[in-house]
Design brief:
The protein is mostly helical. The chain has a single domain, classed as Up-down Bundle (Growth Hormone, Chain: A), CATH 1.20.1250.20. The protein is built from 13 helices and 2 strands. It has a two-stranded antiparallel sheet. A hairpin with a 5-residue loop joins strand 1 and strand 2. Helix 3 runs antiparallel to helix 9 and helix 10 packs antiparallel against helix 11.
């Protein structure tokens, strides 16, 4: 049964990429001056689920047990079919561009998408290391109580949720890929803050910076992927969404080796280096593919 659950969840996870593809089709057919912000708001709902779900799940589980919680989760997933199943969003074809009000878009293509996803993977690897080793560091070396450790860990997703519309606003003004690169740079500085911290202050600074990183990554990643491969927005969305679990696997490997060789808190230096490489690569990609986002939030390549 567990194997069946793993397969089913893996297939179901692909639905999020297709949801973003449907949103892009609708926005391409009816463009707005805030396309990036619209997609960012939808991604905020996804993030909110990760914030609210554990809280409600823990409360409900304490009342009725684990199996009813899993059944309730399955019920919530099925309920999504009620609003989504009634939607009819035809696939947007590039031949419609002349009547959509959107300027023609040249493609950077699959290689640029692959490069963007690969750079994102190495830049996001530090997140797994943070979740794995930051609580251990706060417990064993800083001696923080359980309640304070939980508050510090919970600070990042809460701030991320609040900063996502800010990142989208900056993206509309300065271009998503450049704001995205800045977010990756914030992640590199955050890892350095963790690695050099000797008090709670350094850890909190790192958490605030990581919140800025993930506000950019989560809110803008799909937007950039779709702009790089506009004729295959479903593929672009799915490929980028797959970068998160791949980054988690790489982060686990890097963290294990780093913890064994460097110890705590210096285990955070390798992900800082990876994020710096990712940031530099993204800036080069922005120049080579000439990704430009107008103030109206409409993607052009040229």
């Amino acid at each position: 049964m567990s194997e069946m659950s793993i397969v089913a969840l893996s297939i179901g996870g692909a639905a999020m990429g297709q949801l973003f593809a449907a949103c892009r089709d609708e926005l391409s057919r009816h463009p707005t001056a805030a396309d990036t912000r619209v997609l960012s708001v939808i991604r905020m709902a996804y993030t909110a689920g990760f914030v609210i779900g554990p809280v409600l799940g823990a409360w409900f589980g304490s009342l009725v047990g684990l199996r009813p919680v899993l059944l309730a989760t399955a019920g919530c997933l099925l309920m999504q079919m009620v609003p989504l199943g009634r939607q009819r969003v035809p696939r947007f074809r590039r031949s419609e561009e002349g009547t959509s009000g959107r300027p023609a878009v040249a493609e950077a293509g699959p290689f640029a998408l692959a490069a963007f996803t690969g750079l994102s993977v190495i830049a996001m690897a530090g997140d797994t290391i943070k979740f794995g080793y930051l609580p251990i560091y706060m417990d064993e070396q800083l001696g923080l109580p359980d309640s304070l450790r939980g508050a510090v860990i919970g600070l990042q997703p809460l701030l991320e949720f609040c900063l996502m519309p800010v990142a989208a606003r900056f993206a509309d003004r300065f271009s998503p890929i450049r704001v995205y690169a800045v977010g990756i740079a914030l992640g590199a500085v955050a890892d350095i803050a963790y690695a050099t911290s000797h008090s709670l202050t350094g850890v909190i600074v790192g958490q605030v910076l990581v919140a800025g990183q993930w506000a950019c990554v989560a809110g803008l990643g799909v937007v950039i992927a779709q702009s790089l491969y506009p004729s295959r927005v479903g593929t672009a969305s799915g490929v980028f969404m797959s970068s998160v679990p791949i980054a988690g696997a790489i982060g686990g490997l890097v963290g294990g080796i780093g913890a064994a060789t460097l110890g705590l808190p210096h285990v955070f230096f390798p992900p800082a280096l990876l994020s710096a490489i990712g940031c530099g690569g993204l800036l080069l990609l922005a120049r080579s593919s000439k990704v430009v986002e107008s103030a109206a939030g409409r993607s052009t390549l040229g």
